[in-house]
Amino acid sequence: AHLKPFCADMNGDGSLDMVVGYKDGTLRIFYRDITSGHESESSDPSGSDELYIYGSAISGEHTLCFTPETTTSATWRIFDLTGHLIHEYDFMAEAGVQSTIQFDGISSSGDPLPNGLYVSQFISEHTQRTASMVIAR
């Protein structure tokens, strides 16, 4: 069934959530509800916020472009498949203005990331998105 799950605290609530990678390259995140102990699948982004994440597997560089409907704080996190946080970007995004964040394929400790699959997690007030990122230098 070609599923690749891993667990990490993806939303910062102190409990483990599960990310499942599928053969077609898509990812699903299941958040653990710490009040009931149940999991719930992530929902699609709401509102008219625009979010694009694109990049090059060869260079390891990836770009996030985010244009929110309302001014909001946002976080972009990169994880390896063990759930280890590789890099985190916290920023304020102004309503109607595109924020662009460049990830250069280097860990926060300054080391180039090895080839592999990584998880990109974006969270703002109205938008949440989890996607895979590939580095194959």
For the structure shown, list the relevant keywords.
137 residues, mainly beta, 4-stranded antiparallel beta sheet, 11 strands, 0% helix
In short:
With 137 residues, this protein is an all-beta fold. The chain contains no helices and 11 strands.
SSE map:
Blueprint: E1 4-8, E2 17-21, E3 27-32, E4 39-41, E5 50-55, E6 62-67, E7 72-79, E8 85-93, E9 99-103, E10 116-124, E11 128-135
Count helical runs: 0
Low-confidence parts, pLDDT < 50 over ≥5 residues? 36-46
| H and E string | EEEEEEEEEEE
First and last CA, distance: 28 Å
In terms of structural class, how would the helical and strand content be classed? mainly beta
Radius of gyration: 15 Å
Strand content: over 45%
Question: Helix proportion of residues, in percent?
Answer: under 10%
Fold and architecture overview:
The protein is an all-beta fold and 137 residues long. It has no helices and eleven strands. Strands 1-2-3-4 form a four-stranded antiparallel beta sheet, with no helix packed on it. Strand 3 and strand 4 form a beta hairpin. The protein starts with a strand and ends with a strand.
